[in-house]
Design goal:
By secondary structure, this protein is an alpha+beta fold. It is built from six helices and ten strands. It has helices spanning 4-16, 91-102, 144-150, 181-185, 210-218, 229-240, and strands spanning 53-58, 66-69, 75-78, 82-85, 111-117, 122-127, 133-136, 163-168, 174-179, 200-203. The strands form three sheets. Strands 7-6-10-8-9 form a five-stranded mixed sheet, sandwiched between helices. A hairpin with a 7-residue loop joins strand 1 and strand 2 (66-69). Helix 1 packs across helix 5 and helix 1 (4-16) packs antiparallel against helix 6 (229-240). The radius of gyration is 19 Å and the shape is elongated. Residues 125-177 form the Soluble ligand binding domain. Residues 1-22 form the signal peptide.
Length: 241
C-alpha cells in the first residue's frame, strides 16, 4: 500500500501535466480549471501499459513474430532490434514504432500489434479516505463511491459533494470532473461515471481548490514532472506489487 505522501505526489503530478482548458461542473473558488482538459465521456482508444502482453506479428519476417510482455519501463524487448518504447501508445502507434525500428534491418517491414492480455487494472484513491492507496478495479461498473468504499470509506473531514476524478483523455491530456457522493449515498444519483483503468479518485478535505494546494506543495518533490500521465501510476503499481 502506498503511503500518503506518495499518493499526494502522484496526484500532483497528474494535475501538472495538462496545460489545457476545462469545462464541466462549476469550479470552487480558488480552483484553476486551466490545469485540466475538458471532460470527454467517449472511450479513448486503448493504450498499452507496462504489464500488458502483446502479440507482435512481422509479416515480412515471420520468424520475428511472437508474444511480448511490456516491461515496467514501458519498453517491448524484440529480437534483432532490442527495446522499443511503446507504453502509452495505441496498438497502431506501437506497430508503427516497431516497424520503424525494424526498418533498420529489414526492407519495408509490415508489423501488426494486438494486446492479448492486460496487466494492472488499478485505480488510485487518495485524500480524505481511511485507507488511501492503489486498488484493483473490480469491473466496468465501479464508480467513485465504490472506490471510496474500497479505500475504507470517508474520513469525517471529507468534502463528499466535490469528489474529484482525474482521467487520461482521448488526446492524452488529463481531464478532471467532480461528483457529488452525498447525492449518491442518498440514492439521488451523483455518481453515474464508471471508473476506468488508472483513474484517480481524490476526496478533498474542504473544497476542490485543495487540489491546487497539493500541486503547489508537492511539485518541487516530483522528479521528473514531465513524464506521461500513465507513468505516475506505473511507478506506483510496480513499486507496490
Amino acid at each position: 500500500m502506498a503511503c500518503r505522501p506518495r499518493l499526494l505526489a502522484g496526484l500532483a503530478l497528474a494535475a501538472l501535466l495538462v496545460p489545457a482548458c476545462a469545462s464541466g461542473p462549476e469550479p470552487a473558488r480558488g480552483f484553476e480549471p486551466a490545469r485540466f482538459a475538458a471532460w470527454d465521456d467517449s472511450a479513448p482508444s486503448y493504450r498499452l501499459f507496462p504489464g500488458d502482453q502483446i502479440e507482435v506479428t512481422v509479416y515480412t519476417a515471420p520468424e520475428l513474430s511472437g508474444t511480448v510482455t511490456i516491461a515496467p519501463d514501458g519498453r517491448a524487448h524484440l529480437p534483432m532490434v532490442g527495446a522499443v518504447m511503446i507504453s502509452q501508445q495505441s496498438e497502431p502507434e506501437a506497430a508503427r514504432a516497431i516497424a520503424q525500428r525494424y526498418a533498420a534491418v529489414l526492407r519495408d517491414p509490415i508489423v501488426e500489434v494486438r494486446a492479448s492480455d492486460f496487466g494492472s487494472q488499478q485505480i488510485l484513491v487518495g485524500g480524505e479516505v481511511n485507507q488511501p492507496g492503489l486498488y484493483a478495479l473490480p469491473d466496468g461498473r465501479t464508480g467513485a463511491l465504490e472506490a471510496v468504499m474500497l479505500a475504507g470509506g470517508f474520513q469525517p473531514t471529507a468534502k463528499r459533494r466535490e469528489v474529484v476524478i482525474l482521467r487520461r483523455g482521448p488526446d492524452g491530456r488529463t481531464m478532471m470532473r467532480t461528483v457529488d457522493l452525498n447525492a449518491a449515498l442518498s440514492g439521488n444519483g451523483g455518481d453515474a461515471i464508471p471508473l476506468a483503468r488508472h483513474d484517480i479518485v481524490f476526496v478533498p478535505r474542504s473544497a476542490i481548490a485543495e487540489v491546487n494546494l497539493f500541486v503547489e506543495q508537492y511539485v518541487s518533490n516530483i522528479v521528473p514532472f514531465n513524464q506521461a500521465f500513465g507513468y505516475a501510476l506505473a511507478n506506483e503499481v510496480f513499486d507496490d506489487n
